[in-house]
Amino acid sequence: MSRLPTIVHLDADAFFVSCELSLKPELRGTKCAVGGRERGIISSASYEARACGVYTPMPTKQALKVCPDLILLPHTAGIYGSISRKVFDLCETITPHVQRNSIDEGYLDIGPCGFKTIEETERRVRALQKRIWDELQIPTSFGIASNKLVSAIASKARKPRGFTIVIPGEEGAFLAPLKINVIPGVGKVTEVHLQQQGIRYVKDLFELTETKLKELFGNGWLDMLAMARGEDDRVVHTEHEDAKSYSTQETFGHDISDFAEIERIAKRMVDELMPKIREDGKRVKTMTVKVRYPGMENSTAGKSLNEASDLEAPFYPLLSQLLKAAWTKKRPLRLVSVRFSSVEEKGAQLEMFTQTDEKKRRLAAVLDKLNAGGRNSIVSHGHQLRGERD
Length: 390
Prior knowledge:
Elements: E1 7-12, H1 15-23, E2 32-35, E3 42-45, H2 47-50, H3 60-66, E4 71-73, H4 79-91, E5 98-102, E6 105-109, H5 118-136, E7 140-145, H6 148-155, E8 163-165, H7 171-175, H8 188-196, H9 210-217, H10 221-228, E9 246-256, H11 259-279, E10 282-292, E11 298-309, H12 316-326, E12 333-345, H13 354-370
Parallel strand pairs: 2-4, 7-8
Antiparallel strand pairs: 1-6, 1-7, 2-3, 5-6, 9-12, 10-11, 10-12
Helix pairs in contact: 4-5, 11-12
């Protein structure tokens, strides 16, 4: 085992709220949350709001009851993915070995960087943490350890703006006093069951007999003990998996039964997703529409193009068909979502009208740039002229 910890876990603090506050810094320090009013859910809450009992995913209506002065912030289209990419781009200024695990967390392998001391390691990673704040106004927490498991637990130990280093050889001592739910796979139900067995902390596992461990965890009991000791041999994957789908959804402030309005909202979702697809250098072939009724019952319908595309226009005609196919019950809707899948690399165009599509693509790229950051300064389609998302 290395003398120095070489695996870093980055975890952005209250990421969606932090992104919104980067646009509205005057709201820092307030009780605020990102989510839809009335019929939506809270997707991210500031730590001030969390102290009042607001959590994710809590229905907005309930959040406003536990925190009447909660400031609700609507989602800003396009900003989260853009800021996430900038965060990880900054990580790659330290090391090329960066795994983008999700939009708001990932791993860095700093082993090849040749840091000589724990002090140098801390100084360089703290400088990264500061740079992410200075340039993007995104607060982050970092954990540094000998492996992925312990670094991920360490990054969450002192949030927000946490910074925790676990020296190699001290993994077990670090984990021992922590609550059992820090172990991956121990969710709320499992935690309650283990508490009933007198197991509240990681260290309690080592008081159990082999028979009891097998009774509680079956064939996975050895893996459980290994995690409790802080053992993990997973490596940092520098080539993160390509997106397998792109999706967005909207929960309405009130149930909607107007087909034209639902179709307009769905087209707006296509407009929101397609710039991200183009930016990633991808094309998509399949579109799926999901609707949800007031009783939380869902229905879906999907269809594929003959050729994958990164333009909005080929998918617009499908929306009406898919909405009618999914919306089989003549009842108002609570939610609609659009998802693109069958993702392909952009590659060479094989369509008959290549030049025409390339002209459209160049125009789309210009509009994407003008609309970057959620400003929506340029309206390119008629369905964008009416209404605002909550």
